[in-house]
Amino acid sequence: MMEVARFDAEADGPSPTGRCPAEGGHTPGPVPRSTRTSVWLAPVRSVGAATETEVVTVPQHKDLKRLARARMDETGENYTQALTALLSQTGLDPLPDGWHMSGSHRAEYDAGLLPGNCAHQGRRLIELRFRAAGAPGGFGTVMQSIDAARYRGGRVRFSAVIRGREITGWAGLWLRVDSASRGKVLDNMQDRPLRGTTGWTEAANVLDVAEDAGSVHFGLLLGGAGAVDLAAPRFEIVGTDVPVTPIAGRPLAAEPRGLDFGAAR
Asked: pLDDT tens digits for 232-251?
């Protein structure tokens, strides 16, 4: 249904070891709450004991780029390899219950909770980052899948605050509703992506859930190298006053074209 470039994430296909990367950018206020039913997706705290390793500080923004270029001079690595090595110096705790990895190239990506002293408004973060030695070949995602029964006939919103860390491709939240009548309806923020290094940014996907919908899937995707952080995720039912945010499809032609291939020589 979706073009490969749109990173259509498939639901079924696809301990702290360092100090927190320096904070940066504007910290926005919370996404406005719906007046209807909502479900908080708060990370669990009991995710296993910390491991004993060397404490490492991985800088943010310009310092991270500078260190990556310095590492390139020292090791002969290309930029993606140097950046990936620096990001991997900060260990990750296991993902909270309900979250799992997927994506077209999920083996090239890693995801988990950042160390406890990395926080957004006092809450822990999930980081999704590129980890492979070679060039990125697709995308990875951290996601959840739920039954659509509770939400049929309504409108839902998946929202969070996210920040990019030297993203070489693009990243974004995504939300997909699967139904027999409408197929897979997806918004993955390709029309408003996160690129490069950013401060904390509010993001949201809003879709209608068909009466015959079977499942709803949502998460965070990263295409290319670098990392993207996720904080304060929220899934809720919203009213019809909240507009949907699907990706606009390519306009259909008024009539067939290109049916004459030209004369043979």
From this structure: 999 999 999 999 997 766 67
Q: Closest Cα to residue 46, out of 98, 93, 91, 107?
A: 93
Residue 223: closest CA among 139, 164, 136, 108? 139
Task: Name the band, by pLDDT with cuts 50, 70 and 90, for residue 65.
Answer: confident
Q: Which residues contact 197 (CB under 8 A, 6 or more apart)?
A: 24, 60, 61, 64, 65, 164, 165, 166, 167
Closest to 235 measured CA to CA, from 144, 142, 121: 144
| CA 164/CA 199 separation, integer angstroms | 7
Q: Nearest to residue 217, comparing CAs of 165, 162, 141?
A: 141
- In the chain the domains, ranked by start, together with CATH numbers, are 14-22+34-44+55-238 (2.60.120.260)
Question: In the prediction, which pLDDT does 20 show?
Answer: 60
